[in-house]
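All the exercises in this workshop are built on plain-text protein records. Instead of coordinates, the fold is spelled out as a row of discrete tokens. Once this layout is familiar, the rest of the handout is easier to follow. The record below serves as our worked example for the rest of this section.
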Amino acid sequence: MKIGAIEAYHVFFPSTTLSTEQTKMHYRLVFSSIFSILRHMIDWKTVAKPIVALAPMADMSDLPFCLVCKEEGTPFLFREMVSSEAVVRFNPKTLKIASFDERERPLVQQIFGANPDVMAEAARIIYEKYKPDAIDINMGCPVYNLVSNFNGAALMKEPEKAAAIVRAIKKAVPCPISVKTRTGWKQDTDCLEFVKVIADAGADLISMHGRTREQGYSGSSNWERIGEARRNVPQIPFLANGDITTPELAKDALEVTGADGVLMARGMLGNPWLAKQVLHYLETGAKLPDPDIKERVRIVKKHAALQVEHYGERGLIKLRKHLPWYFKHMTGWKDLRSKLVRVNTLAEVNEILDSIS
């Protein structure tokens, strides 16, 4: 049975009487706002499992690449991180990074910082301005520029502050809050207690990269340790991250970790159709073929066009990081790479691509 805003209002406020059309309009507006907020939210506990998502990658998981991934079948997108300090100063460049296209939904915006109040205010600004479906907190980036200022993975050394950040953001915005972290700072057992603290603070989802900050991106992702951490917080959804670059590895990661899904990063670069392949493999056991060269070129052209649309042609300099990934497995790709990393115009990109298709 369908009910309107007025009837719904009386479900929650049965003693209220409606006497004028103006009052009725007020109630309709109230419920319209509530329904709009709920529509733009992810309920991590009830979404279909396994969850397959693009991981946040600095300078890579931007609007154009996210749109390409979405069009190629990626269900969930985690955007590249933005600085909470820059957001609260209304830095134009940072706010542009946080803007998104409605076609990207459901979308998660990641933020980083070390001050709970600043993080909460940044989350509020982003939510009020853009309405992402969820907000993710970076507690895993190993890069020196972040951890030297107590951001990113450095928060694993200060679990009380990490928890305070989660609680502050939960109070500031109505959307779900997640945390992306690592197995530890130096010891890969650091995560075992850390995830309990984060869960108790109210995180709605945790995703974990299977390396310590000290490892950076060297060595192998420790899926077994992710599994131990996951078992310590069975009450909330959990995503595994690290070294998931094929459908078979995604299946293995899920089996080893017991996670509710996978968050894929470098495996998606030059491979935006990977999420679709993973989902198909998990559902059927069959592998979808990679796109042929003609289809690959079409996708890259689309990526380049979106890049120019969003940034102007100067954005092609940023695209240079992406282009080699699309063709790195091709014979003679090194010669192609030397051309792609020098492009300055969309005409140049298309000319190079036309020469190989």
User: Anything to note?
Assistant: Residues 5-39 form one domain. Strands lie at 51-54, 76-78, 82-83, 107-112, 134-139, 177-184, 205-212, 238-241, 261-264.
